[in-house]
Amino acid sequence: VCTTVHNIIVGKLWVDQSGEIVVKEHTTGASARVKFHPYSYFSRETPRRVTGGVFSPDGSPKFELDGTWDNSMSCAEVLSSDGDDWKTAEQQTRWVKNAPLEDSEKIYHFTAMACTLNEPEEGVAPTDARNRPDQRLMEQQNYPEANSMKLRLEEAQRVRRRAREARVAAEGPAAKYEPKWFKKRECEITGEEIWRFTDEYWKCKETQSWDRCPVLYLEDEEDNDT
Predict the structure, then answer these.
(1) Which three-class secondary structure string do you get for the chain?
(2) pTM, entire model
């Protein structure tokens, strides 16, 4: 699916989606095919329209999908089909966009969920992005201190990177950084190389054992990224 941003230089910005996507359930072989219809000034078709279907492993249609990607989607069971000619039951709404928050234009049109993403939480890893001091200072509208803290954290990041590169040069590939919560594996289904979550994060959170976490947000602390 291609995202196109219109009127970047002149006029009111607006975004369009176009293309097709296939979602496959590898265990059963069922799939969904969804088409995002491109907008055209010369078409009477509903703008931002999305159509598609859900198919059984043998390719026969089971559900028809219809709606728009920015407002609502509905679904109808396919009762019978002859090629692309489907007879369906009554459409049932499956998703509707939440109404915007009051004065949403003053908060960058964030959704209620987006507004809570930076809420502090007790007991998370010290590397959790919600612990970034510059981000918190900016949220508190302390912009000069936020900018100063951001610069200090970025310089500390450069120092850690140079130290890691020096260790790799001296000790070889064994000194390279390894992710703390993911391991590289081959997908049993597709054969592709993927990063798989190890579930160790939740165990460390339960016991509050964060020894493996590097220091990211306190630039004057000793680097413990080993």
Answers:
(1) CEEEEECCCCCCCEEEEEEEEEEECCCCCCEEEEEECCCCCCCCCCCCEEEEEEECCCCCEEEEEEEECCCEEEEEEEEEEECCEEEECCCEEEEECCCCCCCHHHHCCCCHHHHHCCCCCCCCCCCCHHHCHHHHHHHCCCHHHHHHHHHHHHHHHHHHHHHHHHHHHHHCHHHCCCCCCEEEEECCCCCCEEEEECCHHHHHHHHCCCCCCCCCCCCCCCCCCC
(2) 0.71
